[in-house]
Specification:
With 228 residues, the chain is α+β, with helices and mostly antiparallel strands. Helices cover 18% and strands 32% of the residues. It has four helices and 13 strands. Strands 2, 3, 4, 5, 6, 7, 8 and 9 form an eight-stranded mixed beta sheet that branches. Strands 1-10-11 form a three-stranded antiparallel beta sheet. A hairpin with a 5-residue loop joins strand 12 and strand 13. It comes from Pandoraea terrae.
């Protein structure tokens, strides 16, 4: 049985962080280093969302893909993320990568990720250099997500689909690849507990972007890939 919906993840207790684990070295966070790592990945083990470690769902997960867009800014790489609108059926209000369910016309997960990115935030495929992908990530809500990693070269124009996307923002890659910012939080319910990653990032105007769940899990896996 899948755990119940978590309505206020930011209020749940932190049971541990990655404090003390090494950050990804700056030399591995350049465009060429990322190209090389994705082209020739070392042996590594996904830590979150791997099909073999997710509780068996009572149905077959639906195929989906997301783009992990790494923006090549002069001051350093950033990760482009969205905040979903509150009225959506799945993952309402959550911080997400651009992406979604595969459609019949999509020939590959890359096609899905690029199409969804264009539809959701107006990111043109010509601005994206796809450099590889990570293992599929299975969510508790019933999606088998292919994370497609792409480098995005500025300048580019973005236009949010206001039905799906409430906000578009960027987070420095070195912040996300520092495990001191990787929290494990726990949700206890009647028949067990659910643990999940969270990576809160301060908003410039106050408050925070609460990155958690599948998005944080895929970022944690990206950390594991880059650290291996």
């Amino acid at each position: 049985m899948a755990p119940p919906l978590i309505l206020h993840p930011e209020a749940l207790p932190i049971v541990s962080t990655g404090e003390g684990e090494p950050s990804v070295p700056a030399a591995r966070l350049t465009a060429q280093a990322l190209r090389d790592r994705l082209a020739h990945p070392p042996v590594w083990t996904p830590e979150a969302g791997a099909p073999e470690i997710v509780p068996k769902l009572p149905f077959s997960p639906r195929a989906a893909a997301v783009l992990v867009p790494i923006v090549m800014r002069p001051h350093g790489m950033t990760v482009l993320l969205t905040r979903r609108t509150q009225h959506l059926t799945n993952h309402a209000g959550q911080v997400s990568f651009p992406g979604g369910s595969s459609e019949p016309e999509d020939t590959t997960p890359v096609a899905t990720a690029l199409r969804e990115s264009r539809e959701e935030i107006g990111l043109d495929a010509d601005a994206v250099e796809v450099i590889g992908s990570m293992p599929d990530y299975v969510t508790g809500t019933g999606f088998r997500v292919a994370p497609v990693v792409g480098l995005v070269r500025p300048p580019f124009d973005l236009v949010a689909d206001t039905h799906e996307v409430a906000e578009i923002f960027e987070v420095p890659l070195d912040f996300l690849m520092n495990p001191a910012h990787h929290q494990i939080r726990v949700f206890n319910y009647l028949v067990g507990e659910r643990r999940f990653y969270a990576m809160p990032y301060p908003r410039p105007a106050g408050g925070e972007y609460f990155i958690w769940g599948a998005t944080a899990g895929m970022l944690r896996n990206f950390y594991r890939l880059l650290r291996a």
